[in-house]
Amino acid sequence: MAKIEIRGVTKRYESEDANSGLALENVSLTIEHNEFVTLVGRSGCGKTTLLNIIAGLIEPTAGEVLVNGQRVTGPGGGKGMVFQQHALFPWLTAIQNVEFGCKSRGMPLNERKKAASQLIELVDLRGSEDKYPIELSGGMQQRVAIARALALDPEILLMDEPFGALDELTRIEMQGELLRVWSTRKKTVVFVTHSITEALMLSDRVVVLTARPGRIRQELQIDLPRPRERANPRLIAAYEEIWRNLY
Amino acid sequence: MKRLARWQDAVLGALGVLGLLIAWEAVTRSGLVNPVIFPGPAKAIAVAFARVPLRDLWEHISTSFLRILWGFGIGAGLGILTGTTSGWYRTLGALTRPVIELVRPIPPLAWIPMAIIWFGLGEPSKVFVIFLGAFFPVVTNTYKGMGGVDPILLRAAQTMGLSGPRLLLRVAIPAAMPDIATGIRVGWGLSFGVLVAAELIAAESGMGFMIMHARQSGEIGVIIFGIILIGAMNLVTDYCIGEVIRRKLGRWHAA
Amino acid sequence: MKRSGETSTEGGARWPRLLGAAFLVTLLLLWQVASLAALLKPFYFPPPSRLAVAFWELTWEGFPEGVRIGTHMLVTLGRIAQGYLLAVGVAIPLGIVIGWLPILDSLTLPIITFARSVATLSLLPLVIVWFGVGELAKVLLIAYGCFWVMLTNVIAGVKYIDPLLIRAARTLDTSPIGIFIRVVLPAALPRVFAGMRIALGVGFMVIVGAEMIGTIQGLGALIMEARTFYRSDISVVGMVAIGLFGFGISAGLEQLERILLPWHRGLELVRR
After folding, report:
1. Is B174 close to A152, i.e. CB distance below 8 A?
2. Residue A156 counted as domain residue
3. Are B79 and B138 in contact (CB under 8 A)?
4. Distance, in angstroms, between C264 CA and closest chain B CA?
C-alpha cells in the first residue's frame, strides 16, 4: 500500500564543472498506490537523480520524500530497484542473484529457493537459472535483475532506464515482459527513461522533466488499456505534445 | 596468424623439450665442455641421487616447504586483511597506504640483515622475509581490487537493504576476488623466489642451502638437480594455484 | 566509519593525504622518542637521528673504508644495466619472432615456462662454479632473470594483437611487411614496455640477493657487510637507499613510457 509523496525536493550539486547548480528544483509529485509513473526527459534533466532520492541512495538538498507517510532516510526497506547496467553480482548464478535479496531478509534456505525458483519462472528464464551473468544475453540479464528486485517483495519498484542498454527489438520485447510481470504482481512503479515512446507504452502517467534546473514541465495521464498500439492516434498526439515540451 | 590445434601444440612442445635435452646431452659428450663441471642431464640426476641420501633430500624439501607455508600464509592473510579493510574504510586506508607504499620498494631480500638482527639465524628470520615477499603483492592487488569494485553493485545491494560490514563481506570482497587471486598467485611466486634466495644466503637447511653446500663440495650434479627440482616445484605449485583460481573464478569472470 | 562505497572523487580528497603524511611523521617522532627514552635499543631499531648520521658517513667516508654510497650505487647500477640490457636486447627480437610464428611458440612454450620457474638466485652456485665470483657471474644472473620475463611479455605482446587491427590494415592495402612494421610492432609496444618494467624489478631483486654473497661493493653487499660489523644503522640506510633506488628507476621507466607511448594509458598490469 504505497503512496509516494515527493515534496519540494531540491538537489544542488557542487561540482567543479560548469554544470553545477540545481539538478532538481522544488519538485513535488504524488504517486498513488500501484500506479505506474514514468519520468521522461533528456539526459541531465535530473530524472535519475530524483529516482535515487526516492530510493534513499542520495539525500536531497531541500525537501523530502515520504513513502506511506514515513520519511525516506536510506535505501532498502521495500524499495526495489533495477538499474540500466544490470548490476547483477557476477560471481553468482542467475538464481543465486535472485536468492541474494531473500537472504538479506533472513528467509530460511528452502523458502528462499522456492521463492527464487518462482521468480525465475515468472520472468521466463527456466533453464538458464544456473548460468552466470556473463553467460546471459542483455535481455536475460535484465530479467534476472527484475526478478532479483522482486525477490524482496517490495512495495515500490524503481527502474532507472532498465532497457536503455538493449537493442531495439529486445527492448520492445522486455517492455511487454515488464507489463506482464507487473500485471501478475502489482506494484507501484516509478520508471525513468529518455524514450517518449517507451513512457507512453508503459505508464498510467507520464511526468515530463526539463533540465537546468530540473523541474516538472508537464504531466500527462494515459487512460488507455494495455497492451497499447504504437499507432494509436491518442498516443501519437501525446507524443507530439511531449516532444514539443522537451525540445 | 593461424593458430594450431591443441594436440599440435602439445606435440611441438614435447619435441621442443626433447630437442633441448638431446642438445644438452650432445654438448656434454662432444668434449666441448668439461663434463665434470657441465654434466649431462642423466649424469646429473644419477650423481645427485648418489650423493644426497633420500632422507636428507626429503628433510631439505620439507624444511623449505614449511617455511614458505608459514611465511606465505601469514603474508597473504595479513595482506588480504589489510587490503580489504584499508580499501573499505577510508580513514584506515589513509593511514596504512602511505606506509605500505613507502616500504614496498625495498626488496624482501634487503631485509635479511635486519631480520637476522631481530630474529637471529633461525627459522623466524627466514619466515619473516618470505612473509614480506607475499605481503606486498597481496595487499597491493587486494587494495586495487577493492578500488575497482563497480559502485553500482554496492548501490544495488543497498537497495536490497545491505549496509556496513555485511556490504563489505557479501559484495565488495567477492567483487574484488579476481584481483585478490592475482595477488595471491604473484605473492606465491615471489615467496618462492625469496625462500630460495634466503636459504642460499643465510640458512643451514632447506633446498637453497642444499645447493649452496653442494657447491662447496664441488658436486655439480647436485646443484643442477637442485635447480631443476626447485624450478619444477615452483611450476607445479603455481599451476595448482592457477587451476584453483580457474575453477573458482573462471566461469563467471571475464578474463 | 567512512567507506569507499560511494564513488570517490579524488579532486576534493586532500585530507587523506594530509592524514597519511601526519601519521608517518608521528611514527618517525615516536620512533625517535622511544629510542631516546631507551625503550628501543638503537642496535635493533636505529632511530632517525642515527640514520641521518650514518647516511652522512656513507656519503663522505664510505663503508667499508673509503667506499662511498655513491660508489655502491654505481656498482649496483652498472651490474643491473649490463644484465638488463643484455637480456632485453636478446629478448625483444627473439620474442617478436617467436610470437609471430605459432610453430616456434608451441615448440618453445614448455621450455620457456620451465626456465621462468627456475628461481634465478638458485643458479648462483652454478654460475659461480662456471664463471668464478667476479662480475660476469652477477651480470649473467641478472640477465637470466630479466630475460625470461621479458621474453614472455614480448611474445604475449605480439601474439595477442587484436586481429581486428590487422584486418583493418589489410583493407587499407598494406603489404605483409608493412603490416608487421607499422601495425604489429606498435601494437605490441605497450606489452613490451610492461615487460621491461617487470624485468627491471626482477633484475633489481636478483642483484640485491646476488650481492649478498662474495662481494663487498654494491648496495646488497653494503647492507650485508654492515651487519657483520654490527652497523645496523648503515644496514637500514642501505635498505632505504635500495628502496629509493628501485623506486627511482621504475618511476623513470614510467615517465619514459608516457613519453614514448602517449596514446596508451598504461594499463596497470600486475604491480608488485
Report:
1. no
2. no
3. yes
4. 20
